[in-house]
Amino acid sequence: MFSEIQPIRGGVCLKTIRKRQLIYAGLASLSVLIGILLLVSGGVWSDIHGRILLSSVLIVGLVPMALMAYETRKYRDARLITDNPIMHYKTAVISNISVEAPMQQQTKHDEIIVSYFGILLNDKTIVFNQKGIRLKAVQIGEGFISLTYGTPTWAQIIRLLCPVIDPDAMDKISEKFRYETGINPSLISMGIDEKRF
């Protein structure tokens, strides 16, 4: 379940984001092409219906253009995360705890990549050091890794439920977090804070 720390290229996450980006680009191109064909046909400016049709096609074309720009930014962020991983899970269960609403939600994700730049959960990106979002704390315990991130006014905790990590691998992951993020992870054993680097 836990793979060794190494760069991942072209994972399922990136392919999903890239596919949506290409679909939106195709829809935007189609609307621009229809608009150009309406202009070339010449009848657009002669009556009010032609002008309304042209305006509608161009306005409708703005929606996939905006979505394409959003997916392009998301793809760039996801690529940055996958090119600089600290850890990579092929399959993991996430226990999502919000500081404001302490209800716990558990979701299963097929691919999770944690990096200094953020977290990639399937095709959802959580980018650190943008819009005030920062990684605040890391806890590594028997069967879980807990990441706390947020702004000064709110915080979110993601707990990756994973198989028990042997002490050597735990030290290696802790060192990687400390080196990459500057955060000293708390190593927890049986619910007791055992070691803090």
Count of alpha/pi helices: 3
Approximate shape = elongated
List the domain count as a whole number. 2
CATH class of the largest domain: Mainly Beta
Structural category: alpha+beta
Q: How large a portion of the residues is in β-strands, by DSSP E?
A: 25-35%
Low-confidence stretches are: 1-8, 190-197
- Which strand order do you get reading across the main beta sheet? 4-3-10-9-8-11-12
The helix content, as a percent range, equals: 40-55%
N-to-C SSE string, H for helix and E for strand? EHHEEEEEEEEEHEE
Largest sheet: 7 strands, mixed
Rounded mean pLDDT score: 77
Quantity of strands, as a count: 12
Distance between the termini: 26 Å
CATH topology group of the largest domain:
PH-domain like
Which CATH architecture of the largest domain?
Roll
Q: Radius of gyration in whole Å, from Cα?
A: 23 Å
Index terms:
alpha+beta, 3 helices, 2 domains, 197 residues, five-stranded antiparallel sheet, PH-domain like, seven-stranded mixed sheet
Question: What features would you describe in this structure?
Answer:
- Helices cover 41% and strands 32% of the residues.
- It has 197 residues and is of the alpha+beta class.
- The protein has 2 domains: 2-83; 85-196, PH-domain like.
- The strands form 2 sheets. The protein has a 7-stranded mixed beta sheet, covered by helices on one side. A 5-stranded antiparallel beta sheet has the order 1-2-5-6-7, with helices on both faces.
- α1 (12-41) runs antiparallel to α2 (48-83).
- The chain is elongated.
